[in-house]
Amino acid sequence: MITLDLDALPPLSPLAIEMLALRIEDDDAERKLLRILSSEPQLAARMIAMANSAAFGLSRLQFATIPLALRRIGLRRALQLCTASLFGHPVTDRLPPRIRLQLWLHALALATAASELARLKHLPNAEEAYLAGLLHDLGYMLAELQAGGIIESIARRASDASVSMEDAEVEVLGSEHGEVTALLLAHWGVPDDFCRMFRRHHLAATGPDSVQSILFCAEKIVRLDSFADELYGDRQHLFAQVLLPIEGVGGHLLEEMQVDAPQLSRIVDRVLGQVAAISGLATEMATA
Asked: How many C-beta atoms surround the C-beta of residue 255 within 10 A?
């Protein structure tokens, strides 16, 4: 079992907590976001690159300023992506480029699946599920930063011992990666109400309409083998050894989420239909 040292992390941007507290409903949300971006030139450049990427459709126009970029991306999505970028930077900046890209691919796929699940369930916090999905992989990012190769080791352990990825994480990390995310966010001073949604040991008591349950099921969706070729392009990636066919997890998802088989199939198709956008965003998020 490895020991994660939170005190050894690079500093978090002091604006990250402020970003997390921003709400799209606030009258001055755009003004506040513009002020934050003016103080974070790397983040501002990343937002402009995203606006000009294929993630938001092809355009002959170049969106060269932050206000135009925000309008292209949409204020809500920009808030979420900026928040995830600020929190992710300390734990991804020093990772190898290939690993950094794969982790952001996984995080964005998870966020997309979580948003689709929440929307299908008509949950009022569907957009919250997207941000939660983006941040959920911080635990993986931290583990990989402090012990390079650990995710592949966990996946190998899960495959060799025929146990779940979560059980293998507990063996190696002492807790599963959602718990590690909660610990990391708490270390950075994020309010406990927000940290709580990443703590899986509350899953059984939360019910199928909770963010915890949405994240749990979204994680299963992005581990379907159909994502290997579509999302990663090959089988040489961090989660290759724990991919499953939809027949292997479908029954559990149907029971957990209380959806029927056609609904699950539509969710998978909708997420796969967004692979190009996910890949484009991940490329920009992974840019150091």
From this structure: 10
